[in-house]
Amino acid sequence: MKKGHQVTMKEIAKKLGVSVSTVSRALKDSPELHPDTKKRIVEMATSMNYQYNLLAQSLRISRSKVLGVIVPELTSHFFSSNISGIQDTAYKRGYNIMICQSNESFEQEKANLKTLVSSQVDGLLISLSRETKSYEHLQELYDREIPFIMFDRVTEEIPVSKVTVDDAHGAYLAVNHLLQQGCRKIAYFSGPTDLYISKKRKEGYLEALQEFGIPETESRVYVTDLTEEMNRKVTMEMLAEGDRPDAIFAMIDPLAIDVMIVLKENGIKIPQDIALAGFTNNPTSAVVEPSLTTISQPGYEMGQLAANHLLDQLDEIVPDDPQSFILLTTLVERNSSQKSTTA
Amino acid sequence: MKKGHQVTMKEIAKKLGVSVSTVSRALKDSPELHPDTKKRIVEMATSMNYQYNLLAQSLRISRSKVLGVIVPELTSHFFSSNISGIQDTAYKRGYNIMICQSNESFEQEKANLKTLVSSQVDGLLISLSRETKSYEHLQELYDREIPFIMFDRVTEEIPVSKVTVDDAHGAYLAVNHLLQQGCRKIAYFSGPTDLYISKKRKEGYLEALQEFGIPETESRVYVTDLTEEMNRKVTMEMLAEGDRPDAIFAMIDPLAIDVMIVLKENGIKIPQDIALAGFTNNPTSAVVEPSLTTISQPGYEMGQLAANHLLDQLDEIVPDDPQSFILLTTLVERNSSQKSTTA
DNA sequence: CTGTTAGCGCCTTCAA
DNA sequence: TTGAAGGCGCTAACAG
């Protein structure tokens, strides 16, 4: 299918017997122009259905007014909330966004970066894939002075602005809550250990335990690659052990829900036998049975903040030295952890 | 923040004392070029960290290799699945995507259309907002011969290709299933009546009833604007009536779940007192209690199909007369409707 | 095999 | 108040 012809300033100019520059000036409402000429041109443009060509402008001014976004996956509620915040913010400030998903693949992430840079995006918002363990591609981006910031899945290795939630504190809130409920043998179900959030949330987990005088014990840490299969396997392993925990803090809600399913299958009562808490506050968590206690992350706000900050940097409203924004998480108490009321 | 300087072919040419066209040819591996020259140029480009400027190419060839996507909202699982399918497909075929969300607003949808057209997207994939009841903006797009197709939320008014699921048949499957379970007084909970899917799903509902010799009765149709508030209100109204239904078919899962919550609050047993079925198969539906019987829509596949078809049209692999793709839905039987086994 | 020229659509001097 | 010229980065047609 061939795209229909788009009217250009040149054509308007020819029809009216004026120069292209005059048309250009009229269309951007320049004051140094005879009102009549302006009127004639604007009317002609409207009647010819003229549509401004942003591409040409971008080339001209070396600014595309496009932001690139790379996320691990589009279908997760958290990331789509981020994107929603980014999109709304960018739109309000006159920018479009181009989106890529790395599908949690390092190679894909590098490829995405390349096409977005090629497309001359003015800046990038990046959330790293699970596989990303080396950062040369980001370093190169940095060296080439292409503005970008990271959100949620970040690395400390590159000195750019970052937007995250307070993972450690969120985990602390969750585990502290479990402790308040009387649990003392609390397991931590972790994602891959090299993931930033796995580490941070473990910090909070350990801090809460320490505060209650419980010796740090790695023996209650279970690691999964977050596939349903392995989540199930790890949970079964835990159940097979002699000294079962009385509570589980799972690094993210989907993991918590996988754990919940396995526990229920095995006749374990939640929260009576084992209390459970997650992290993220996915919509699903509110409706599972029992409803899942979790930590709420402000996904939409993160997206807004990240986009606003990047645009502030681009527009030099704000100096471009790296800042770290840490958003607050909140505890959402639900039934999966209410020992006191349900026991 | 100023974007770092990007190396251009011109600079490479100057460094090497050749012409820009030679550089251009070398970089696209043209055969009519001395291997040595080519080698020198490619090496120089690499060492200077040259990055191709897609924007300039777009302007030159009048093709941006960008697809525009407009969806009502980004955070719904169904639409993010669509987008995921679109993105993966576009990427594979060398296209980027620009995404806008209309936030269910007609004005926003028109504005989105405008900026995407301005950005010179090669084609558009559109899913209409709930508010969209007039179609001049699409007609204009059509008249201007900008290739686009619609998916999921479509209108028959514009002769372009459409990708939808078989809504009527899906509804038929759900209601037929409820009938098989022995229910005879089946209510239909509908969204706004001017919505395409509201109508189509009602058709399937009525067809199933008819097949069982149940007189069409509008009295069991309940209409909501799909806000939680009104969903609740309508459900309460239904409960207040004398002749309660023994089953409910809700137009979409979130509505079904709102209904489920209200029923449970009122001590109604599901499915024993009232069976329940939804439509969409959101991830949430699998984990609610009782798990929700629903109709599965292939969101990712819809996105893939839509993107592939549009690109086929653009690349003239396929003639550009409008086609209608109707994807199959499947019944997902879960506990909210299993009268036979649970009664 | 390589260089020159022209132009994609737009805007910004500079000149008139 | 308006026009002409030049250029953003790249490519394609035409020379040589």
Secondary structure blueprint with pairings:
2 copies of one chain form a homodimer.
Chain A: H1 9-16, H2 20-27, H3 35-47, H4 54-61, E1 66-71, H5 77-92, E2 96-101, H6 106-118, E3 123-126, H7 136-143, E4 148-151, E5 162-165, H8 167-180, E6 186-190, H9 196-211, E7 221-223, H10 228-240, E8 247-250, H11 253-265, E9 275-277, H12 283-287, E10 294-296, H13 299-314, E11 324-327, E12 330-332, H14 339-342
The structure holds a DNA duplex (16 and 16 nucleotides).
Explain this structure:
Chains A, B: One of its GO terms (molecular function) is DNA-binding transcription factor activity. Chains A, B: This is Transcriptional regulator of the myo-inositol catabolic operon. Chains A, B: Residues 7-61 form the HTH lacI-type domain. Chains A, B: It comes from Indibacter alkaliphilus (strain CCUG 57479 / KCTC 22604 / LW1). Chains A, B: Keywords: DNA-binding, Transcription, Transcription regulation. 2 copies of one chain form a homodimer. Chain A is α/β, with parallel strands linked by helices. The first copy, chain A, has 3 domains: 9-52, Orthogonal Bundle (434 Repressor (Amino-terminal Domain)), CATH 1.10.260; 64-165 and 299-327, Response regulator (Rossmann fold, 3-Layer(aba) Sandwich); 167-297 and 331-341, Response regulator (Rossmann fold), CATH 3.40.50.2300. Helix content of chain A is 45%, strand content 14%. Chain A is built from 14 helices and 12 strands. The first copy, chain A, has helices at 9-16, 20-27, 35-47, 54-61, 77-92, 106-118, 136-143, 167-180, 196-211, 228-240, 253-265, 283-287, 299-314, 339-342, and strands at residues 66-71, 96-101, 123-126, 148-151, 162-165, 186-190, 221-223, 247-250, 275-277, 294-296, 324-327, 330-332. In chain A, strands 2-1-3-4-5-11 form a 6-stranded parallel beta sheet, sandwiched between helices. In chain A, strands 7-6-8-9 form a 4-stranded parallel beta sheet, with helices on both faces. Chain A is elongated and about 90 Å long. The termini of chain A are far apart. The model of chain A has no long low-confidence stretch (mean pLDDT 93). Chains A and B meet through helix 4, helix 5, strand 2, helix 6 and helix 12 of A and helix 4, helix 5, strand 2, helix 6 and helix 12 of B. Chain A binds a DNA duplex (16 and 16 nucleotides) through helix 2 and helix 4.
